[in-house]
Specification:
Largest sheet: 7 strands, mixed
Number of domains: 3
Helix content: 25-40%
Radius of gyration: 22 Å
CATH superfamily of the largest domain: Gcn5-related N-acetyltransferase (GNAT)
Mean pLDDT: 97
Order of helices and strands: EHHEEEHEEEEHHEEEHEHEEHEEEEHHEH
Bound molecules: coenzyme A
Structural class: alpha+beta
Distance between the termini: 32 Å
Strand order of the largest sheet: 1-2-3-4-5-14-6
Low-confidence stretches: none
Oligomer: single chain
Length: about 400
Amino acid sequence: MDLEIRTIAEHELEAWVRANEAAFGADADPDDVAREREVTELDRAFATLDGEEIVGTAAAYSFRMRVPGGADVPTAGVTMVGVKPSHRRRGINTAMMRRLLEQARERREPLAALFSSEGPIYGRFGYGMATLQGSIDLERAYAAFVPSYRPTGRVRLRSFEEAVPTLVEVYAHARVERPGAIELDERHMRYAFHGHGEEKRLPFFVAVHGTDGRPDGYAVYKVKHEWPKGIPGNELMLYDLQATTPQAYADLWRFVLDVDLIRHVTAWDRPADEPLLHLLADPRRLRLTLRDGLWVRLVDVPAALEARGYAAAGRLVLEVRDAFCPWNDGRFALDAGGDAARCLRTDEPPDLVLAVDALAAAYLGGVRLHDLWRAGRIEAAAPGALELGDRMLATTAAPWCPMAF
Ligand SMILES: CC(C)(COP(=O)(O)OP(=O)(O)OC[C@H]1O[C@@H](n2cnc3c(N)ncnc32)[C@H](O)[C@@H]1OP(=O)(O)O)[C@@H](O)C(=O)NCCC(=O)NCCS
């Protein structure tokens, strides 16, 4: 079988999108193709061709991602990964993943990140589960808040089109405290809210919260209707809720939980440390379930480690194993003593020995080195190294990437 991997030309975009949808057992309508056209970077959109036919797809967006310490680091946002069922398990995806990472390295992006359709796909390529995301399913009847809550702000309902500039502005402020949050311009914000399948046809509602006339939070949702025996059993599907103050956060949740004719409120990409848990009088009813969120890859280990900030000063020698990107393989001395961290190759004995996917899991501060060690994923070669590492990597907010791409 003669296969070719290359980037696509503009006129191939529709066939490329359709090939990707076919890998997912779906088809693309003209709307989906237009959506991809808006954001696809052709020099980062790879296809695998069998003759004239596109049988595999993979691409990257040029994002910047918040990392602990407050920097926004160039990141390859890997997306559109698919191989048609006729060509699966022949190494096509492996070859495309290699091309994407080599390209990210050439472009000096220290990080790559993605959301995965299934858990086991990307660990072998050095991606680690760096954020946990929470899904919730809360019955409105059990959604009372703790007695100390006092509503204050004003909430206005807006159409999606009216609200887009506000979403971009509020999101830009809200993401500042969240490692893992990618930067979004208006194009990518629209893309993130495009939706799939049946749900795509339902209208969006946007609740905008304002304090002193300035927007400081929003909630984006749709309502799925169900009226068994004439009794309203509707589901409010929360797509996003962002706020820049605790008051706006609480008021927006109260708004969402008080919409009439709703039986339950669901959301599937919430932070692992969702404060709503502490606002509800009966937190058990939130039914918060955690799963893998953003998978992160350190494309360039020393550059990635130097790009983030550290909660405690310290020096650690890391022995990193990276078979997929051998340029990362080896020992590095990470020194987070002064203003900026330094990370240089060394031949000193290691304090910690770990595969690059385990390091990536810990990178955003959401997964403790201790937990990885307990899972047998890290070898602690020097006493106190795990404790020091966890103090250095700690963050105040759990990492979270609110927008899937
Ligand atoms: C996931 C997908 C892209 C893999 O493509 P592929 O070309 O078959 O992958 P490869 O042949 O390169 O597989 C490499 C390895 O990953 C494993 N693998 C691939 N997909 C896997 C999956 N879904 N679950 C578990 N392991 C998987 C293979 O078994 C193989 O392992 P091996 O090296 O030990 O034999 C393809 O199956 C697909 O398109 N699936 C449906 C759409 C989808 O889920 N896309 C991913 C979106 S994030």
